[in-house]
Write a structure and sequence with these properties.
The complex is a heterotrimer of chains A (408), B (520) and C (256). Chain A has 408 residues and is of the alpha/beta class. Chain A has helices at 14-25, 30-40, 57-60, 119-127, 358-366, 371-384, 392-407; strands spanning 82-86, 91-92, 101-106, 136-141, 149-153, 157-168, 173-180, 184-195, 200-207, 214-223, 228-235, 240-249, 255-264, 269-278, 284-293, 298-307, 316-325, 331-340, 346-354. In chain A, the strands form two sheets. Chain A has a ten-stranded mixed sheet with strand order 2-1-5-7-9-11-13-15-17-19, covered by helices on one side. In chain A, 57% of the residues are buried. With 520 residues, chain B is α/β, with parallel strands linked by helices. Helices cover 25% and strands 32% of the residues of chain B. Chain B has helices at 19-36, 58-67, 72-86, 126-134, 141-146, 155-160, 180-185, 193-199, 201-207, 218-226, 467-475, 480-491, 493-496, 501-514; strands at 49-51, 110-112, 164-170, 173-177, 189-192, 231-235, 244-250, 257-258, 261-266, 271-279, 286-289, 292-297, 302-309, 321-332, 338-345, 350-353, 356-359, 365-374, 379-382, 385-388, 394-403, 408-417, 425-434, 440-449, 455-464. In chain C, the strands form three sheets. Chain C has a six-stranded mixed sheet, with helices on both faces. In chain C, a hairpin with a 2-residue loop joins strand 4 (60-69) and strand 5 (72-73). Chain C is globular and about 55 Å long. The chains are: A alpha/beta (408), B alpha/beta (520), C alpha/beta (256). Chain A binds chain B through residues 50, 309-310, 313, 323, 325-355, and chain B through 93, 419, 432, 434-465.
Chain lengths: 408, 520, 256
């Protein structure tokens, strides 16, 4: 190892020292070191970093501790799916994998592109592996009629890290669901998706965590020509939770739908951050994020479309974020951003933020629907719009989870 | 800028009737200049100057303060700011790139020789009067009146075409302020801030630095240390200022920085509309402009602040031009007060400017209407901050950015709602227009809502100039550049209508000139 | 006999405390069961305010007087409680509810009202059958009932949907606020047929309108003229015709 452990992070916090120690226990590996260096550049991200100004992991995550709360039940159906399960100490997989799906579990780290932009993704890559767990788990998809793949991240422990890479070959398609159920004090996962020409991905993420947990799911999505990715997230947040997606359109005609709903209660913080680069002409992005926040809860939305000169021509991109502050004491921070260097484009974004509409509330109550029920009905309808593109097999479950939260 | 007239009751002020002819002649000359070059204000004026020693030190500040014969408290205020500035770092978060500024390479004070203020307009050196005339800024009240003689037919029209009182700032000092007597009759104080320090020290002391604190940011702190001149306005209780007030800033001397400081106070139920215009000669070096503007509106008061900024933008290759690093902030201190910013930004090489409103009073209103045009290699990072503190406060942001050439144009804004700002409302609309494929348009809004009963709405679009529309106009016989101007005017109409009429006309022609050479 | 709706000396303001404006200024009105009363008046007379005050919209404050439905004070009740007691307002401008299909909405309302009254919920087949019958009578497309409430509906469709809800919920007391506005003659007839089908000896109705036109189709038992927040004149159906011919100024001038 070329860098002395104590020199990795300047003025480290207790949590950062523990992360360095965990890194020190991993086998030597140049790519692992590069990933960890990318993280240690800043240490745990904090509010003085522009991209993290509203989600301060350094201040929130003081030490790595097993949280008081157990992991949540997984509401997503397992029937007829291929289940892969990560716990802080273990990993399990189906006994037999069908044709068209190949899995490689490696003990070594794979390089992370653009690691410095995703410090917690780099951290996940650097600390994944050890014991029964692979450092890098790679899937190759060559079929378009695989059963749904379902990943579960749960289990009691101080910290849990995972790194998964998907390669969806030309013309193949994948339906994927992930349940992040908490239970570990700090969970960091890095998932990468490489969509080859004309391939399809439908991905659904369910996230639930305890009020004393930190969680960061970082996703890197590369879209080749005419590929299509649809992502739906339902996040309930944690003490601090960030669901970050960075997508790059790499071939003409690629299409990306990024939808998310966050529901943040007292003591919870849910952050949806996205960055989409239109690196090829004529690509389409549709993004809808909806949030509902209660007293003591925080919601964060940061979205960015980057349209480079020339290669970004004929971009068609729309970003909408709508948040409801359901009670006094709720707070929502948003930064919908456009950075555009190509002229023949249609780019728009919109943001609304406030209480439920008085007129709608009165209309429902005039028809005899009690206030709390009216509020729940309107909020459900509001949130449901962001969940409509989730895979059919889980859509109703997501809706029911949102409803349960809203009516409890 | 067009001259603006009044009614005949001011005829006794007209001491020189022949002036009208000379204005017309100059107007023709100015119009010709417009045809021949893009930046008509790019000439220099030859006049002897008193300059502070080059560079920035405690001595420079003592020199400025002594030259202006300032009271001790103000010198101390400046020195405190300077001490603070030394510990600060130049901000780097804006989407602008420029070479490192050597703060020791500038002159921080430059005044025409023969004193700070002329006793009467007749004492103002001819070169300076000519400069303003050439720019279309009338300093002789008579000219102001004669400029539109016969044009004002009815009382209603007279209200629509109000006269404009002008404070002319040439490099570091105010050289002339018009219509002071008439304003005095109404109780309105309108003078350079240097004069106000002597004549109304209590008012200045009470409000200076209360909206933009000394240590607010790097450039504002620098301004607090070295500010040269600027305008002071106080409109007393219940007074509706009888005419538009205006300051015209002209940077002339080489290697100078201009650091004006403007302070406008509208007392309870007062109203004032204030216009600001700026130009500078074409020079190869980058000149530095770091102004501070503070507005205070008390209960039921309203301040309307309009800017047409046309500082020299540098040449096509990005050589020269003004670095425009400005801090403008309004404080709606009183209930039901209102502050409205309107800006047309066409000049400067680099602009860093966020006119803001602190909506402190209940039911207070903040507005920001902006047109920012960048061409050549200009870079603009501009927008606003609306800080909602009071109940039922409302804000409205309309921003139109137009990028052409190899320029970058960024809207950056913050809407922040405090948890006590019940039922606050904001509406924001940011539209960007791209002309050509070598420029950039960026939108970076920050929205922070901590109040459940607040309603915030933001919309933004980015599009290119429509080729269909352009072709349609050209098919009907409109030249390409005129067609561009026509479409751009349509794009910015929502904002133009918030400018006082005489400024709107100037703004339209500025837009056209700024975009010349952007298509084809 | 005790009137079904009894409004006595009602005063109400609209707006925030400091800028509150008095809109209803001592309004007194009785509507017995089985009768249809029309309220006419010029713009700004307080017609819509009256409908909102009776149904409990926020932003309107009752500063004096009383209003009872079958002897019960309704002014202190929540809007949904008033609805459960049978108050139904057909909105002048029906509200759009994105994401909530009409059927879901009405069924939720119906069951909430039944629950509040201690009644059993309606079964799904019964609800669907009832909905089908009502929709048929109002010429409503079944597809329309699957769409979100009022979203993308034309003005006429919105008004028909109000009547559909009314016939589904079977309220005891109906307030029709400018139901004729924005309707062509055919739509007006359909809407009026629906309302007339609801006429019943046990049901009261208040028809608020600016024009006499609607009253050709929904014949009132009494006509009241509302101006400056008070009922200043009451008469039979002929009063509406006089208003149409002489204008409000003529009739108001005589009353003053």
């Amino acid at each position: 190892m070329t860098t002395a452990l104590r020199d990795f992070i300047k003025n480290p916090t207790t949590a950062e020292l523990e992360l360095v120690a965990r890194y020190g226990m991993q086998p030597e590996d140049a790519r692992r070191e590069r990933a960890f260096l990318a993280f240690s550049e800043t240490g745990l991200p904090h509010r003085r970093m522009e991209a993290w100004k509203w989600s301060d992991f350094k201040a929130t995550l003081k030490a790595l501790e097993t949280p008081a709360s157990a992991s949540a039940e997984d509401p997503l159906p397992h029937d007829g799916t291929l289940v892969f399960r990560f716990t802080p100490t273990g990993f399990s997989q189906p006994k037999v994998l069908p044709d068209g799906l190949r899995m490689v579990a490696q003990p070594t780290t794979q390089a992370v592109g653009g690691a410095e932009d995703v410090p917690l993704g780099a951290l996940a890559a650097a600390l994944a592996g050890g014991g029964a767990r692979p450092a890098t788990l790679t899937f190759e998809i060559t079929s378009s009629d695989l059963p749904r793949l379902h990943f579960v991240f749960d289990g009691a422990g101080e910290a849990s890290f995972a790194r998964i890479v998907f390669v969806i070959r030309a013309g193949a398609s994948l339906t994927l669901t992930e349940s992040y159920l908490g239970g570990a004090g700090f969970t960091a996962a890095l998932l990468e998706f490489n969509l080859e020409e004309g391939s399809r991905l439908n991905r659904t993420i369910y996230q639930r965590g305890g009020a004393d947990e930190a969680l960061a799911v970082t996703s890197l999505v590369n879209l080749a020509a005419d590929s299509e990715a649809t992502q739906t997230t339902l996040a309930f947040g944690a003490k601090v939770a960030r669901m970050e997606t960075r997508a790059v359109h790499q071939g003409t005609g690629a299409k990306l739908s990024l939808n998310a709903a966050y529901l943040s209660g007292n003591g919870f913080h849910a952050d949806i951050t996205t960055n989409v680069r239109h690196g090829a002409p004529g690509c389409v992005t549709r993004q809808l994020t909806k949030g509902a926040v209660l007293d003591g809860g925080t919601g964060v939305f940061q979205g960015k479309f980057f349209v480079p000169r020339k290669t970004g021509q004929h971009t068609d991109a729309d970003m909408q974020h709508q948040a409801l502050l359901l009670e006094d004491g709720a707070q929502v921070f948003a930064k919908p951003e456009l950075e555009i260097y190509a002229d023949d484009v249609e780019c728009a974004h919109g943001n609304t933020c406030g209480a439920l509409d008085d007129a709608q509330m009165f209309y429902l109550r005039q028809r005899g629907i009690p206030e709390t029920q009216a509020r729940a009905m309107l909020t459900e309808a509001f949130i449901a719009e962001a969940l409509g593109m989730a895979d059919e097999s889980v859509r109703d479950v997501l809706l029911a989870e949102a409803q349960n939260w809203l009516s409890s | 800028m067009d001259c603006c007239g009044g009614t005949t009751e001011h005829d006794e002020d007209c001491d020189d009737v022949k002036v009208k002819d000379s204005i017309d002649a100059k107007t023709v000359e100015a119009a010709k200049a417009l045809e021949s070059e893009n930046y008509s204000a790019g000439f220099t004026t030859d006049i002897e100057m008193d300059m502070a020693p080059k560079g920035l030190s405690e001595d420079t500040i003592r020199y400025i303060s002594a030259a202006k014969n300032e009271p001790e408290w103000l010198l101390e205020w400046r020195l405190k700011a300077y001490e603070r500035w030394l510990t600060m770092e130049e901000p780097s978060w804006a989407m602008v790139r420029y070479p490192k500024i050597d703060y020791q390479a500038y002159y921080y004070f430059a005044a025409p020789k023969a004193g700070a203020k002329y006793a009467s307009i007749d004492d103002v050196p001819k070169e300076i009067l000519d400069t303003y005339e050439k720019l279309g800024i009338p300093l002789r009240e008579a000219e102001v009146l004669l400029g539109v003689e016969g044009a004002v037919e009815t009382a209603a029209e007279a209200r629509e075409k109000p006269r404009v009182a002008v404070d002319a700032v040439f490099d570091s000092v105010s050289v002339a302020t018009t219509f002071r007597k008439e304003l005095q009759k109404a109780g309105v104080i309108f003078m350079s801030i240097s004069e106000a320090v002597h004549e109304y020290p209590e008012l200045v002391k009470k409000y200076l630095g209360t909206v933009v604190p000394q240590s607010d940011n790097f450039f504002a702190t620098l301004n607090s240390a070295v500010f040269s001149d600027g305008t002071f306005v106080y409109v007393p209780k219940g007074v509706r200022c009888p005419m538009e007030l205006s300051t015209y800033f002209r940077m002339n001397a080489e290697n100078t920085g201009q650091f004006e400081r403007t302070l406008i106070i509208a007392d309870e139920s007062a109203y004032v509309s204030y216009l600001e215009g700026c130009t500078a000669p074409m020079r190869d070096e980058n000149q530095l402009h770091a102004a501070v503007v503070e507005l205070v509106a008390l209960d039921d008061a309203e301040i309307k602040y309009s800017t047409v900024q046309n500082w020299w933008p540098g040449d096509e290759d990005g050589k020269g031009g003004i670095f425009n690093f400005v801090t403008k902030r309004g404080d709606c201190r009183g209930d039901r007060s209102k502050i409205s910013w309107t800006q047309v930004e066409t000049g400067s090489a680099v602009t860093w400017k966020y006119p803001s409103c602190i909506l402190r009073g209940d039911d207070s209103v903040g507005e920001f209407y902006s047109i920012a045009v960048t061409n050549g290699r200009q870079q603009a990072d501009t927008g606003t901050k609306m800080i909602h503190l009071g109940k039922r406060t409302k804000s409205r942001i309309i921003s139109k950015g137009i990028s052409a050439g190899k320029s970058d144009n960024t809207y950056r804004g913050l809407v922040s709602v405090n948890r006590k700002a019940e039922k606050a409302r904001n509406f924001t609309q940011c539209d960007s227009l791209l002309i050509g494929d070598r420029c950039g348009a960026h939108t970076i809004p920050y929205i922070e809502n901590r109040c459940a009963s607040a309603q915030l709405e933001h919309e933004a679009t980015t599009t290119k100039l429509s080729e269909d529309q352009l072709f349609y106009a050209r098919q009907r016989g409109i030249a390409e550049e005129d067609a561009v101007a026509l479409l751009v005017n349509g794009f910015v109409r929502d904002v133009l209508q918030h400018l006082p009429m005489e400024f709107a006309v100037e703004a339209q022609s500025l837009l056209k000139v700024s975009l010349e050479g952007s298509v084809g | 006999m005790r009137p079904m709706l009894k409004i006595t000396n009602l005063t109400a303001t609209v707006g925030e405390a400091a800028e509150a404006k008095t809109i209803l200024n001592g309004l007194t009105l009785d509507v017995p069961a089985g009768e249809v009363h029309a309220i006419m008046g010029p713009n700004g007379a307080g017609k819509s305010t009256l409908s909102y005050v009776l149904t409990g919209r926020s932003g309107y404050e009752v500063t004096g007087g009383s209003a009872t439905l079958n002897g019960e004070d309704i002014l202190t009740m929540a809007p949904e409680a008033r609805a459960a007691k049978g108050m139904f307002l057909s909105f002048q401008y029906p509200i759009e509810i994105p994401g909530v299909p009409v059927m879901t909405f009405v069924r939720t309302a119906m069951n909430a009202q039944r629950k509040a009254r201690g009644e059993a919920e309606i079964s799904a087949p019964d609800f669907i059958k009832k909905s089908r019958d009502v929709a048929k009578m109002l010429n409503l497309d079944a597809e329309m009932l699957k769409r979100p409430v009022n979203v993308g509906f034309s003005g006429g469709e919105k008004k028909r949907l109000e009547i559909y809800q009314m016939m589904m919920l079977e309220p005891k007391f109906l307030i029709l606020d400018e139901t004729d506005s924005g309707l062509d003659i055919d739509a007006l007839k359909t809407v009026a047929d629906g309302v007339n089908a609801m006429r019943d000896p046990s049901r009261g109705m208040l028809v608020i309108t600016h024009y006499q036109r609607l009253l050709d189709y929904i014949k009132p038992d009494k006509v009241h003229v509302l101006a400056k927040g008070q009922i200043i004149k009451t008469g039979g159906p002929e009063l509406a015709l006089r208003l149409e011919q002489e204008g409000y100024d003529g009739v108001l001038g005589e009353a003053a």
